[in-house]
Amino acid sequence: RMETDCNPMELPNNTGFEEDSDYGDFEGTDVKDMRLEAEAVVNDVLFAVSNMFVSKTLPCAEDVAYINVETRERNRYCLELTEAGLRVVAYDFDQTDDRLQTPYHETVYSLLDSLSPAYRDVFGNALLQRLEALKKESQS
């Protein structure tokens, strides 16, 4: 269990973590949990790839999480998410290759844009459809 400098009884009851036993050790801390961040990344772009999920095999921590992604071209990658950004750490699910020196990307969008032309097309089309919808809304 993580050591804390405060008495847990002093913490407000609305931290939101109590219900989920997986996050019990993070109760009351202000640290950004990378697993939550990774889930948000997946939810953001899942529509534009074949498959994407947070790794259940590789260890997630406060400062790192791993995301498996399969592009529409059927290429598989394991991505590392840290404060520095996202980068490819292997060319298969649930793997890391220390010899792989790939650049960090600030966003999942730029990373997928560099890996998958089909992602770029799907994401671009979704953006266009959204803009068209907004244009129609503003005209009515």
Automatic annotation (TrEMBL):
Which intervals hold domain GSKIP?
Answer: 34-134
Care to name a GO molecular-function term for this sequence? Answer: kinase regulator activity
Region: Disordered; residue ranges are 1-23
Quote the InterPro entries the UniProt record gives.
GSKIP (IPR037395), GSKIP_dom (IPR007967), GSKIP_dom_sf (IPR023231)
Output the Pfam families linked to this UniProt entry: GSKIP_dom (PF05303)
**GO CC terms of this entry:** cytoplasm
Q: Could you give a single Gene Ontology term from the biological process aspect? A: regulation of canonical Wnt signaling pathway
In the record, the note on similarity to other proteins reads:
Belongs to the GSKIP family.
Q: What is this protein called?
A: GSKIP protein
Q: Which gene encodes it?
A: Gskip
